[in-house]
Design a protein that fits this description.
about 230 residues; alpha/beta; about 30% helix
Length: about 230
């Protein structure tokens, strides 16, 4: 059956920064369910599924009536590539023929209908093969300003560029991934990359682009929930 948009929530059980990160609570709901609820507000999405390898996550999916697909073990490891996982899902596990796939990370908790619909409208009305959210990088996090540690000493990752572009005004703006991307399924199966080229973008603010990776990110997300209506 021909359908237009499938949203996939990737949620493996393993995680390093926070144990069972995708089941951590935000506003009394697990992160995967928070994402599920937010995706459901868009009438443009035909179906939503969770791809997971974890029994606890499957149990939560069943309770909240979130469709799920059991992820194969080889695609659930720390070094597994999301492109490989999605290729297997779209090639071997999804029977319906969707035109576009929206990948929604549960660790990106503040997506909303406006952002989702903007992304979907742009890919439907343009020649882009993917469209992603991006967030402007603060000056201190600019790639030219980054350091690394070696033998108990800290160094600039690119000392020559740092000396040449030493202040904010001299640097071009840089952007980080906002953790939401929609892509053309047919092109993905060819390019095997969610950021199928050419790729368009929607700039969002740092709140809506927040990524939960460590415990302090989760603390910040809960503070935002309690104090801001986003």
């Amino acid at each position: 059956m021909k359908k237009n948009i499938l949203a996939i929530i990737p949620a493996r059980g393993g995680s390093k920064g926070i144990r069972l990160k995708n089941l951590q609570k935000l506003n009394n709901y697990p992160l995967i369910i928070n994402t599920f609820f937010r995706l459901k507000k868009s009438s443009k999405i035909d179906n939503i599924i969770c791809s997971t390898d974890n029994r606890k996550i499957i149990k939560i999916c069943k309770y909240h009536k979130l469709n799920f697909i059991k992820r194969k073990k080889k695609y659930s490891l720390d070094n597994s590539n999301i492109n490989d996982t999605l290729f297997d899902v779209l090639k071997n596990q999804i029977s319906d023929d969707y035109k576009y796939i929206l990948l929604a990370q549960p660790t990106n908790p503040f997506i909303n209908k406006k952002i989702i619909d903007k992304l979907l409208t742009k890919i439907e009305t343009s020649k882009f093969n993917s469209v992603q959210t991006i967030v402007e990088t603060p000056h201190i996090y600019h790639p030219i300003n980054q350091r690394y540690i070696s033998k108990n000493k800290v160094y600039f990752s690119n000392k020559n560029l740092r000396e040449k572009y030493f202040n904010k005004q001299k640097k071009n703006k840089s952007f980080s991934f906002g953790n939401l991307v929609v892509f053309n399924k047919k092109e993905f199966l060819i390019q095997k990359n969610v950021f199928c080229e050419p790729s368009g973008y929607e700039i969002i603010d740092k709140f809506h682009g927040l990524d939960i990776d460590f415990k302090d990110d989760l603390t910040l997300a809960n503070i935002i929930v309690k104090n801001l209506n986003i």
